[in-house]
């Protein structure tokens, strides 16, 4: 059994935010409105950062108390593969709404990037954030 070390972290260093991240989730998505984009999937990178209320961030080393990363991946996959999108803004908004509706979410940031559009750019994309 691990020892619990109480009182070692000074109050000034106590955590003030708690965040879980799904970073750079790569999907092939039918997205875009230009003629060359219609009818073929493009690589899209999605990042979701979820700041959690204190009671929703695992305090013990117990998988049952962890935030569900599978939920994030599965919901994004379902949305992205469920239909064709003209705009990244639309997909990001739908992801945002699904995650924001979860209990315990204190703040949220969702962004997407198309990494293969311009040879001299890492990507082009959009972002929604609650802050």
Explain what you see:
By secondary structure, this protein is an alpha+beta fold. It has one domain (23-129): 2-Layer Sandwich (GTP Cyclohydrolase I, domain 2). Helices cover 21% and strands 29% of the residues. The protein has 2 helices and 4 strands, in the order ββααββ. The chain has helices at residues 69-82, 88-100; strands at residues 19-29, 42-52, 105-114, 124-129. A 4-stranded antiparallel β-sheet has the order 1-2-3-4, with helices on one face. The protein is elongated, with a radius of gyration of 18 Å. The model has no long low-confidence stretch (mean pLDDT 89).
Keyphrases for this structure?
alpha+beta
Q: Kindly state the number of beta strands.
A: 4
Query: Which descriptor suits the 3D outline?
Result: elongated
Number of helical elements: 2
Low-confidence spans: none
- What is Rg? 18 Å
- The tally of domains stands at 1
Note the gap between the termini: 40 Å
CATH class: Alpha Beta
- SSE ordering: EEHHEE
**Tell me about the biggest sheet?**
4 strands, antiparallel
CATH topology: GTP Cyclohydrolase I, domain 2
Secondary-structure blueprint:
Blueprint lengths: L18 E11 L12 E11 L16 H14 L5 H13 L4 E10 L9 E6 L2
Antiparallel strand pairs: 1-2, 2-3, 3-4
Helix pairs in contact: 1-2
Task: Summarize it.
With 131 residues, the protein is of the alpha+beta class.
């Amino acid at each position: 059994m691990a020892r619990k070390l109480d009182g070692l972290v000074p109050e000034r260093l106590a955590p003030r935010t708690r965040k879980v991240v799904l970073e750079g989730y790569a999907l092939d998505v039918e997205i875009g409105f230009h003629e060359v984009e219609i009818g073929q999937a493009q690589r899209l990178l999605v990042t979701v950062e979820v700041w959690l209320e204190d009671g929703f961030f695992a305090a013990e080393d117990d998988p049952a108390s962890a935030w569900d990363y599978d939920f994030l991946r599965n919901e994004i996959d379902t949305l992205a593969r469920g239909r064709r999108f003209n705009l990244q803004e639309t997909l990001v908004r739908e992801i945002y709404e699904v995650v924001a509706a979860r209990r315990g979410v204190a703040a949220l940031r969702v962004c997407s990037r198309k990494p293969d559009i311009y040879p001299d750019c890492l990507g082009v994309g959009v972002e929604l954030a609650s802050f």
